[in-house]
Amino acid sequence: MTRRKKIYEGKAKILYEGPEPGTLIQYFKDDATAFNAQKKAVLEGKGVINNRISEYVMTRLNAIGVHNHFIKRLNLREQLIKEVEIIPLEVVCRNVAAGSLSTRLGIPEGQVLPRSIIEFYYKRDYLNDPLVTEEHITAFNWAATQEIDDILATTLRVNDFLSGMFGAIGITLVDFKIEFGRVWEGDFSRVILADEISPDSCRLWDSTTNEKLDKDRFRRDLGNVIESYTEVARRLGIMNEMPTVIQGGKG
Ligand code: TMP
Ligand code: ASP
């Protein structure tokens, strides 16, 4: 096999050079980190499940016209994606209070928010991804006003679609984080959804019991992390395509 050039390595994924210009290969690792990598573990099978869940979600979003970087899944851990210029923002959308919103504003976890709230965080590990406002984003040229408008509109569409999709399988979409990137067409660029959408980047609670089915199981040492991710995949109806090791459910 020819050695591929590694373009970037993050905490949970690696990007390799793609087969054609303008493409990359996104590889999903089993590594899990939390609290800016102060807490680390290897969760066997996580990369395989997240690759498949993210493929499923991105494909469904594409079908309703939410353009994104996903092209096709290549194998258990890799997908072919469009190369984008990542906008250095983590865009968080919340429907129910949890996590840093509860901590920062003293709103009890589980309280339904009066409306969906979108927040921006500046994607810089060495600063701990601080919360920023549109003023910071435009003043420092991280994104243009028009791009912010597109990001807000797309994020609300993603929220509506995913809330319905998960709601139909008995899962409450509490919150999620997405990222965007620019694709260039000549002198013009447009913003598309990038990165991944998986239980690593969403809070997903069982609608009946409020049991957590996402990365908070790892962050908060609740156990059964892989079992919970597997349960999300099972309810989405995509478990039959998983290798038997993961279907077995041990992790
Ligand atoms: P937060 O409550 O910790 O700010 O997290 C909000 C959402 O963003 C939650 O669904 C988890 C997700 N998230 C990430 O995907 N990556 C991160 O680095 C952080 C801090 C949160
Ligand atoms: N992904 C982030 C980290 O490693 C934080 C998180 O998801 O909690 O550190």
What does this structure look like?
- This protein has 251 residues and is α+β, with helices and mostly antiparallel strands.
- It is built from 7 helices and 14 strands.
- Strands 8, 9, 10, 11, 12, 13 and 14 form a 7-stranded antiparallel beta sheet that branches. A 5-stranded antiparallel beta sheet has the order 1-2-3-7-6. It has a two-stranded antiparallel sheet with strand order 4-5.
- Helix 1 runs parallel beside helix 6.
- Bound molecules: thymidine-5'-phosphate and aspartic acid.
- Aspartic acid (ASP) binds next to strand 4.
CATH class of the largest domain: Alpha Beta
Mean of all residue-level pLDDT scores: 96
Give the SSE string.
Answer: EEEEEHEEEEHEEHHEEEHHH
Which bin fits the share of residues in helices? Answer: 25-40%
Label the structural class: alpha+beta
| The CATH homology group name of the largest domain | ATP-grasp fold, B domain
Share in β-strands? 25-35%
Global shape? globular
Poorly predicted tracts of residues: none
Q: From the coordinates shown, what is the CATH architecture of the largest domain? A: 2-Layer Sandwich
Count of DSSP helices? Answer: 7
How would a crystallographer describe the biggest sheet? 7 strands, antiparallel
CATH topology of the largest domain: D-amino Acid Aminotransferase, Chain A, domain 1
The count of domains is 2
For the terminal residues, how far apart are their CA atoms?
30 Å
